[in-house]
């Protein structure tokens, strides 16, 4: 039996455990707490070399600082702490290295740390560096070349807000890499294709806010993502990264991808888009300033080339079952509504609405979703335009005497949707100047928006014959407003469904009722 040590009547059983087991236990603690145990006794000091998982977080290490000088001193102290821990461990094997640094003042130190852990056969690297204030342009920094030939890396997640370069001099070989997340990187298209070609086991790829380096690149420039093992793909480049996209052609051929998140401006060409196993997709495509050929009051016009590009992208994801469309995507779809493909497998559609975005593409979208079960609106923002007068130009209740006092909407009367859900119901939108008097305050603006949103919901209930459930998520603590909305919906004079349950959920209440034909 192991000898028990007695300290003031207590038994120190842990100190008698094997070194490797104590190191394993300490690996579950933040590294600053694991290091603190070394002051317990001489017995504990060398145990740090057995800690195989390092987790550094400068928010746990730094004292509150008021001046810039104090912040810089704190940051320097933290980086020296990381240096000291790595030095104490020597060449001991490490499995995981995680760094959350909000106040890193020199990213070159971070790149040195990466080299250190790569030499020790690390399998999991996760770096989140949100600022760099050393006065140097970090775009001159490059990831160490050793990172692209690691035979042990399984997970690599790096977020640098300073736009680090990726440069590959030799062939990439990452045979065990399954998860790759890279944020804020600058890379040549040819280098990216080389990088992807060396990741044969990759299952999850996230590319967030990359800059394409077009220097010395041939035209056209192709980005090829062909990974037979890939299951999750997130390709998100936001507006400040649009400048090079008009020369980029994308090729996606990923037969096993089940989740896709794609936010980008329209590429020069979608050479091929194929996602045969897609289950869920979030789509956010937008027009750049140069791609907008004619900006009318509420609509955009795009060229036939861009229209064809959007159609090719949609055709490649038309097997999807769950789809999210951003408000910018609605804007683009408005230019391509006559070429939207059929989504036979789609059962859930979420639509983000924002002020000044018209609903022109929604009728075509609903008509091309023959098996849609759940329709979700993220907000109920709507702006009237001349398109609202056409029966296939909108989903709103346009106040014109065509049929039954309003415009007929065949896409609603033939809709298979059973569940209608409205998120952010009652959210304030912009109001037209003619709709309110100059002295009207914010409360009256809210009343106007709420009344319009209630009318939209009433119209859906009146026209959609297969509705079984309507859910309104009304995030307010004003119970009186909630009750007024509920009573109005509860007493609808006309509904299309034989039996529909209406549920109104607020901060304090959850109300429901059944309405029927």
Work out the number of β strands. 24
**Which range does the strand content fall in?**
25-35%
Rg (C-alpha, Å): 29 Å
Cα shape? globular
- Estimate the mean pLDDT confidence: 82
Q: Could you name the ranges where pLDDT drops below 50 across 5 or more consecutive residues?
A: 1-7, 294-298, 431-436
Percent range of helical residues: 10-25%
Annotation field: number of helices: 12
Query: Could you tell me how far the N terminus lies from the C terminus, measured between alpha carbons in angstroms?
Result: 79 Å
Question: How do you describe this structure in short?
Answer:
InterPro entries: F-box-like_dom_sf, F-box_AtFBL13-like, F-box_dom, FBD, FBL60-like, LRR_dom_sf, LRR_FXL15/At3g58940/PEG3-like. About 25% of the residues lie in helices and about 25% in strands. The chain has twelve helices and 24 strands.
Question: How would you sum up this structure, described in words?
Answer:
The chain is α/β, with parallel strands linked by helices. Among the domains are: 29 residues, no CATH class; 165 residues; 144 residues, no CATH class. The strands form four sheets. It has a 17-stranded mixed sheet that branches. Helix 4 runs parallel beside helix 5. The longest helix has 22 residues. It is globular, with a radius of gyration of 29 Å. The N terminus is likely disordered.
SSE layout:
Blueprint lengths: L4 E3 L2 E3 L6 H8 L4 H6 L16 E5 H4 L6 H22 L6 E6 L5 H12 L5 E6 L25 E12 L12 E10 H9 L6 E5 L2 E3 L7 E6 L5 E5 L11 E6 L5 E7 L3 E6 L5 E7 L7 E2 L4 E2 L2 H13 L5 E4 L1 H7 L14 E5 L9 H6 L6 E5 L31 H4 L5 E5 L18 H22 L5 E5 L5 H12 L9 E6 L4 E6 L2
Parallel strand pairs: 3-4, 4-5, 5-6, 6-7, 7-8, 7-9, 8-11, 10-12, 11-13, 12-14, 13-15, 15-18, 18-19, 19-20, 20-21, 21-22, 22-23
Antiparallel strand pairs: 1-2, 16-17, 23-24
Helix pairs in contact: 4-5
